[in-house]
Amino acid sequence: MNGEEPEDTQSGANRKQEALDYFRAKGQMERAREVLRLFSAAKKAASIYPPNHEICINSFTAFMRSFNDYLAWREDFSLRIVGEEFFYEEKLMPRESILYYPLIGELKNKDIGGITIAAGLTPGEFVDFLYLLNLGAEELRDKGGLRRLMEERDVGNITLDEPGTWEEKSFEIKERDSAREEYFDAVDVIRELADQVMTDRRLSVSKANRVVGVMLNRVGENRSAVLGLATIKNYDEYTSFHSVNVLILSLALGSMLPLDRSSLMILGTGALLHDLGKITIPQSILNKTGPLTTQEWQMMQDHPVKGADILMAQPGVHPLSVMVAYEHHARYDLAGYPKVNRKERIGLFSRIVEVCDVYDAMTSARPYQKARTPDQAMRVLVKDMGTAFDPLMVKVFIDMMGLFPVGTLVRLATGEVAVIYEPGESDAMWPRVKVIRDPEGGAVEPRIVDLVYLKDKIGETGQAILEALHPASLGIDPQEYL
Ligand SMILES: [Fe+2]
Ligand SMILES: [Fe+2]
């Protein structure tokens, strides 16, 4: 985007980094496998022999040595159980899940959903843990449970997850993935619809409705997660991605108002298809960096009317959806285009889509503009409240997004760089973030931090988030971390 670096050098550097990352991840996984193998062997030895037996001593020492080697990669070792399988962190261990199948069953039977071993582990602690773990499930229960026994023995460097912990988490991850799939499906559909209209001016309304329905369900399930999707941008194929983003933002905003499902469907169809009239404008004009000629500007200004014409000709498109396409640039004060006469205001759905349309356009990088950060874009919405935008819609929009919506790249008070991950449960100013860079700008293993915990450090009135950052200027894609 900046063109400062020749592209081949950059992609060469990227490939090198990719290769390094690959080997690093592979090395780490190999170590993790070895740790698990020796853990299992040590546990077995402890189940047969007393701790001072030579076989035990050898296997405990082998485990400790391997664990200490592993610590070059990570500060702790975390083994998780999902279903009948072992995961090392987020990665499935297919071979080990078969090899240590009985161990998985035993751990589950002893109410363990995962084991984390921290860097400070001492050999004594490890041995104590193994002998406790080898007690029968019933005996453990009679003695108050494994966790209590571990506490009594001061086994502090090993922690156990409750059963099912990672099943729920992996469900969450899968949910996120399928929501992303739906996003890209929606992009495919709008692309297809535009092609179809280009060739025979017909449009499959049922396809459009299906996309709107799917997104509406997502919004109903988890509004903030869906809003994170609306931060996906595509420089080369702006209009399709923009249409889906405007759909998501409009449905999310509409669902904050007292609108029923059928109204939201009509709103969504209008939002998804609001720029359909652009299909007749050449890319060279849409992407022009210099000022437009009078004739080009006329073409641009015609897209709402053209879009409305196309939609009106399709059976099954609600007149209010058509109106959205027609009015989305007309502005709240009617000073936009096309000129809307005999009206005090544009329609409610048009006012919703207008705010979302301008917000997504402003936060996207285009040939003629740099992307604004979400907080900058929201300040523009506030500045033009009452003139370009319906003040109430802007207020609800900001309420919904928070100043730093999900997916925003930010600098924290600690100097670290993070991506907003989830809105705060009680207070939007204290969201959960994923920290991805240290204060010096070095990459760190992404970790989720609840900013509420920064309150103690910086005080109730202090700011946990200093500023929003431009992802492109740091070469970061926040989407990777959501
Ligand atoms: Fe438009
Ligand atoms: Fe638009």
Task: Give an overview in words.
The protein has 482 residues and is of the alpha+beta class. The chain has 3 domains: 20-163, no CATH class; 168-401, Hypothetical protein af1432; 409-481, no CATH class. Helices cover 55% and strands 10% of the residues. It is built from 20 helices and 10 strands. The protein has helices spanning 7-48, 54-70, 94-99, 101-109, 123-133, 137-142, 146-152, 165-200, 205-221, 223-229, 238-254, 261-272, 283-286, 294-312, 319-327, 348-362, 374-383, 391-401, 455-458, 471-474; strands at 76-82, 85-88, 91-92, 114-118, 158-161, 409-412, 417-422, 432-437, 443-450, 465-468. It has a 5-stranded antiparallel beta sheet. A hairpin with a 4-residue loop joins strand 6 (409-412) and strand 7. Helix 9 (205-221) crosses helix 12 (261-272). The longest helix is centred in the first third of the chain and has 42 residues, at 7-48. 34% of the residues are buried. The model is unreliable at 1-9 (pLDDT under 50). It binds fe (ii) ion (FE2) (2 copies).
Labels describing this entry:
single chain, about 475 residues, alpha+beta, Hypothetical protein af1432, 3 domains, five-stranded antiparallel sheet, 20 helices, 10 strands, about 55% helix, elongated, disordered N terminus, binds fe (ii) ion
